[in-house]
Amino acid sequence: MAMDEILEALKHIAREKSVDRQLLIETLQSGLLSAAKKKYSTAADVEVKFQESTGEIRIRVHKKVVQVAIDLAGEIDYEEALQIDPMARLGSTVPVEVPVGEMGRAAIMAAKQVLVQRVREAERENVYDEYVDRVGQVVSGTVSQVDRGSVIVKIGRTEAIIPPREVINRDRFKIGDPVRALLLEVDKNMRGPQLVLSRTHPEFVRRLFENEVPEIFERVVEIRDIAREPGSRTKISVVSHDDRVDPVGACVGMKGARVQSIVRELGGERIDIVPWSPDAKIFVSRALSPARAIDVYVDEEEKRVTVVVPDDQLSLAIGTRGQNARLAHRLTGFAIDLRSQSQMHAAEGPSGGMPELDLDELAKELGPRTVERLVKAGKETLQDVMRTSVDELMAIPGIGEKTASRLLSLGGQILEERAAAQAGASDSEDGADADVAPADGEDAPLAAGSAPAEADDGAVEASAARVETAVATEEAPQESTQDAEGAAAPEDEGSHDDEDQREAGA
For bias kind Acidic residues, which ranges apply (predicted)? Predict the structure, then answer.
């Protein structure tokens, strides 16, 4: 290669790879030095100089002057040395010029390999320095390759990768498609693309809202927490630091324009925007939207809440495959025990004094195998089932979300019917004995439908507690919780477990 070609090649590499020219020159010298030592000897005293102005490369081997050279790699005849340096003396050294062409093909290839390797390292260091401070931000690029679930993205002069686990299941990328993602990691040591991107990370949603909603970017509105199941549904809690700004309205935008832009970016992922509250009762009830909470009982110590919802909204509160309750749990940090009204009534009072009921009625509706599973889990009576939460029932092998909901709904219905029948029988007996005079020292029997004064006081207190809780819940108006798809609609409850349906049919 001519010297001017070498010089031009170095300029081209420096320009295209954004690598410092001086670093390239030093690398070239290092590569040629390595090649020269490979040709002569690792112990040889070799000097390599590159003249940048002319592109000239000079390689010199310093050899010892001896009377008769035996080791030609490190020695030179005295007579020959005098031709190079008339002042040469025996035992001294003289620099012997070595033409680059005499280095041999293998040596030149070794030098080239050193240069290429160093250029790669320098390039990776430049990429690292450029992007390391942008971790956690959204970057944009163009899809250059889709390979076995991974997406390779061209960003400027470098490439990034979205691993399969970081791709939303709704994403369908083609070569040339524009793409936005969160810069998750920069690693200058890994092979292949060193920028790792994510479209599934919760922070990606936060950054998209920051880009789309000026109030969030300016810190007037704050996103407190995010709970996300990528490609399906996300819940975010927001709070305003300015009383004049509605945090939910700011995120939704005029006619939903802001949030819809984010929904489109996420491939139709549903987004619930929940007003944050320091009151756990209010916050949890809002987080369970679109379901409406009637009562919320909070155990701050255990970070656990029991939420009572109308019977017809239990499935809505749980969500498809438990998603709504699961996301509400992640968003609030509270373990949520969902109960229907009838379940709470059955557990608290109507079954009081009632004998433990077997599971025959449930077997008629849901099949004997479901009952077998309950018995194996230690739920031998109907009251045992009603004292169990949906999550606990779903933890029993073979019982899914829909079956758990039906169990509690049917159980509550059966207990209420039995309680009503028991109360009717009791009223009949009281009516028959109403004219019987009390014996001396005995209190008069109560009229049918009456209750002792103590019971009335307790009922009033319980009623007041429920009203108080309901008021607290209503302070979190359901209409303020927005869904990215518009008005909240009951979720598709899906079908029951096939096996349970077959049993019930049988």
Answer: 490-506
**273 three-state secondary structure:** strand
Please state, in angstroms and rounded to a whole number, the distance separating the CA atoms of residues 352 and 308: 20
Superfamily of structural domain 3-128: NusA, N-terminal domain (3.30.1480.10)
Question: What does the DSSP assignment read for 124-164?
Answer: HHHHHHHHGGGTTSEEEEEEEEEETTEEEEEETTEEEEE-G
Do you know the residue count of the chain?
506
* Statement: 205-276 belongs to CATH 1.10.150.20: no
Please state, in angstroms and rounded to a whole number, the distance separating the CA atoms of residues 501 and 449: 41
Q: Say which residue the tokens 């025996």 belong to.
A: 90
Strand 482-483 with 335-340, pairing: unpaired
Q: What is the pLDDT of residues 113-155, one digit of tens each?
A: 777 777 777 778 888 888 999 999 999 999 999 988 899 999 9
Residues of the chain with CATH 2.40.50.140: 135-200
Helix (H, G, I), strand (E, B) or coil at 182: strand
Look at residue 389 and give its three-state secondary structure: coil
d(CA 145, CA 154): 9
Which residues of the chain does CATH 3.30.300.20 include? Answer: 205-276, 279-425+462-506
Number of neighbouring beta carbons within 10 Å of residue 23: 15
Q: How far is C-alpha 213 from the geometric centre of its chain's CA atoms?
A: 22
Return the bridge partners of 103, or none: none
Q: Can you tell me the distance from the alpha carbon of 476 to that of 282, in angstroms, rounded to the nearest whole number?
A: 6
- CATH 3.30.1480.10 residue ranges for the chain: 3-128
Task: Count other Cβ atoms within 10 Å, centred on residue 452.
Answer: 10
Structurally, at CATH architecture level, domain 135-200 sits in Beta Barrel (2.40)
Beta-sheet strand order (sheet of 295-299):
295-299, 304-309, 335-340
Report the SS3 class of residue 59: strand
pLDDT in tens, 416-456: 677 667 556 655 555 544 443 344 444 433 333 333 333 33
**In the structure encoding, which two tokens stand for residue 439, read together?**
């014996």
Distance CA 197, CA 180 (A): 9
Copy the structure tokens of residue 205.
Answer: 């949603």
Measured CA to CA, the distance from residue 228 to residue 232 in angstroms comes to 8
Going by C-alpha positions, the residue among 356, 346, 350 that lies closest to residue 423 is 350
Q: Which sign, positive or negative, has the C-alpha torsion 448, 450, 452, 455?
A: positive
Find the largest Cα–Cα distance for the chain.
148
CA atoms in the 13 A half-sphere facing the CB of 255: 0
CATH number of 279-425+462-506: 3.30.300.20
